[in-house]
Structure of Alpha-galactosidase:
Amino acid sequence: MLSLAFLCVMALPISVFGLDNGLALTPPMGWLSWERFTCNTDCVNEPADCISERLYKDMADRLVEDGYKELGYEYVNVDDCWMEHDRDQNGRLVPDRERFPSGIKGLADYVHSKGLKLGIYQDVGTKTCAGYPGSYGSFEIDAETFAEWEIDMLKVDGCYADPKEMDQTYPTFSSFVNKTSRDILFSCEWPLYQDQVGIKPNYTQIAKFCNIWRNVHDIDDSWQNVLSVVDYYSSHQDELVAAAGPGRWNDPDMVLAGNFGLSYDEAKAQLMLWAVMASPLLMSNDLRDIKKEFSDLLKNKEIISVNQDPLGKMGKRVQKNGNIEIWTRPISPQDKDGKPSYAVLFFNRNTIGGPTNVSVELSSIGLDSVNCYNTYDVFSPDHSVKYCPKDNLHARVNPSGATMIIAKH
C-alpha cells in the first residue's frame, strides 16, 4: 500500500516541484560498476570482482592514486544488486550484510575520505531490474535513507514501473530527494522507458527533476552497440541539444575504454563523441589492470576540457558524407561578437581499409567568425595552425576512429 505522504505528493501539481540543486553544472565524471561487473554477487569464487564494498574501495583508490581524480573523475557509483532482498522492519533498505559489512554509510565515509563522491542505484518501480526492492511507495523514506548515508548521486532506473506513471513518479521521488538536507545529483531513466513504449518524452519537464537522464538502451561492450547509441543521438539531436545545459544533461551511458570489446581507435572515438555530446563521463572498466594506452586516453586533458566546457552547449553532427561524419561543439572562449570557439570531430565509420583523409571548409560547418581560428589536434596541443573561415581544415582519420581538432579564438 502506498504511504499517505506519497499519495499527498502525487496529488499536488507537478509544477510546484523543481530541481534546483546547483549540481552537474558540467557533465559528471567518475566510475560506475554496471557494464564491467554487472550483478556479480559471487564473492566466494570471485572476491575481487563481485559487487561489494571491496570493489568500490579499490576503484576509489585507483581514481586517486592513478591521477583520475585530479582530472575531474570524482564519482564512485554503485549500481544494482547492492542490497538485501527485503527491507528491514522499519521499511528501510538494507545493504547486503556479507558483501557490504561496513554498510553504505561506512563505504561513503571511505570514499569521502579520498576526496571523492559516492553514488548509488535504485528504481522508481516496485523492484530493481535485478529483482531487489524498488522505491515505489517508499520514495520519502528512501530519500531520507540515502541522505543519512551521505550519498552524492542517485541513479534511478525504471524496471517494474509503468512508463505512463513516470510523469508523476520520477518528479515525486526527485522532490523528496531534493527536500533532504543533502545535495544529491539525480540521475533518471525516465525518457528511455517512455520512448520504448511510444510516449514522447517531455524534456522540459524531465530537466526540472533530473540532472542527467538516459535516453536509449544500455550500452554494451561492442562497437555495433556504441554505433547504435550514436545513431539515436544524431537522429534526435535537435530536441536533445535543446534539452541539455548546465545542470541537465543527456546520458548515452557508460564509457567503455579499457574493457574487452573496443579497439583503441574505437574507444578513442567513443570518448571523443561523448565529449562533443556533453555527456557524463562515467567509466565502467577495471581500473586495477587497465592498459596504459587506455588509461592515458581517459586522462587526455584536451578531450576532458571539451566535455567540461563551461558554456554548457551540447554538440551535434553537422555533416555526413557516406561513412564520414563531422560533429561540432561550441566551446569557450567566445570572440568579441559572441561567436564561440569549436571542437570539431571527424568520425570515420568505415571498418575496413586504411585511414581516410578528410577536408572541409570551416564556414560550411558553422565556423564563420570574422576572426581566424588557432587549431590543434587534441593529442598535439602544442602544435597550432591558424585557419580562417574560408580555409579548408584537413584531418586524417583511422577506420572506426575519430580525430578531434580544437579551433579557438
